[in-house]
Amino acid sequence: MRTHIFPLLTIFLLSLSSSSSSSSNLIKDTCKKCSDTDPNIRYNFCTSSFNSSPDSNQTTDLRQLGLVSIRLTKNNVTSTRHFIKHLLHDGKNKKMNNNNNNTITNTTTKLDPYVKACLNDCMELYSDAVSTIKLAVKDYKAKRYDDANIGLSSVIDASTTCEDGFKENDNSKNKSKNHVVSPLTKRNDNAFQLTAISLSIINMLRN
């Protein structure tokens, strides 16, 4: 029996290695196309996002990778909604640290009234986005790419509208005493890029 185990194990490992290499090439090629066609998409962000998902290693074609991208967007949107809820519940202004792991630092200062109003708006936007992206997943699986495109486009709108809300205070006559800084900038940017990647892949599939 032993004489048969090692050859089979070798074949299995070679198969895994080949699959991983194929997935890696698919990710690189897709991210290259995405970043070339959309200046808002950063190649390194695209590849690192896919590589962070174990599901990416199992992808064999563009359609499967597209589903992974939508799920990454869904996870980001859901996480951001929870983050906003946490900020509002805590009544404090907390920031993500800079090591790119989306953790929350200790309390800094009380929420500025304008920031709180913006967070409430963002909470509504991201709550709608969570529901929308769930439908987009179903549409994508059913190959209703036009419907999935519409849904995902609204998610991009949610991230930009949320971030723009914090900037409006600088142009308002009723400015706060302090300059308003969005605690969601990085998350909004991630949501925008992840959704843009999904939309780019959908456009590839439709062409």
From TrEMBL:
<comment type="similarity">
    <text>Belongs to the PMEI family.</text>
</comment>
<dbReference type="InterPro" id="IPR035513">
    <property type="entry name" value="Invertase/methylesterase_inhib"/>
</dbReference>
<dbReference type="InterPro" id="IPR006501">
    <property type="entry name" value="Pectinesterase_inhib_dom"/>
</dbReference>
<dbReference type="InterPro" id="IPR034088">
    <property type="entry name" value="Pla_a_1-like"/>
</dbReference>
<dbReference type="Pfam" id="PF04043">
    <property type="entry name" value="PMEI"/>
</dbReference>
<feature type="signal peptide">
    <location>
        <begin position="1"/>
        <end position="21"/>
    </location>
</feature>
<keyword id="KW-0732">Signal</keyword>
<feature type="domain" description="Pectinesterase inhibitor">
    <location>
        <begin position="22"/>
        <end position="201"/>
    </location>
</feature>
<protein>
    <recommendedName>
        <fullName>Pectinesterase inhibitor domain-containing protein</fullName>
    </recommendedName>
</protein>
<dbReference type="GO" id="GO:0005576">
    <property type="term" value="C:extracellular region"/>
</dbReference>
<dbReference type="GO" id="GO:0004857">
    <property type="term" value="F:enzyme inhibitor activity"/>
</dbReference>
<keyword id="KW-1015">Disulfide bond</keyword>
